[in-house]
Sequence to fold (180 residues):
Amino acid sequence: WIGGTSSLAETFFDEFRPFDGAFVLAGPEPPCQPSLASRPFVTLDLASERSVRSLFERLPLAVEAVIFGPRLSLVWGSDAHLTLISHLALLLERAAAAGVRAVLHLSSVAVSDHTLPQAGVRESDPMPPLEAIASGYDRFKRAAEEVITAECASRSLRCVHLRLSGIFANTRRCIQCTTL
Fold:
């Protein structure tokens, strides 16, 4: 699980308890939530080439699949997404070399620009050009899909992008739950 220790991560691991020993968390800071604190954790700074390059060597077990879903706070309000995208290609290169066979990308409807109306949109509908998307977060999600698709194809990795529109979690920190 690459992407930190959000409410989504906490809920995912709560729901997949039978697979407790099969997951390693990788993110910028160790988890403080009790349900995540007992899991194997490896620090990963997606803004650091060195951290990304060495990730798979530092894992306590072999990994066959990567779930990639960095949190909003990693890319909101800056152009950090440009560095993260270049490191994402490196991450997938290293993943393939380490024996990873599949990638699940937790993407977002933001790939089509979350400021545009989303009702009735189909996956086959054309998306606006990347340059027309104003938000750094939206550009990151879109560029991440493009990089993951291309890198996985070039390395014969299976990949799936899940475009989430809202995340409802089993925790009190769930933003969507507290605003309803």
The first strand starts at residue 25 and ends at 27. The chain has a mean pLDDT of 78. Residues 52 and 91 are 6 Å apart (CA to CA).
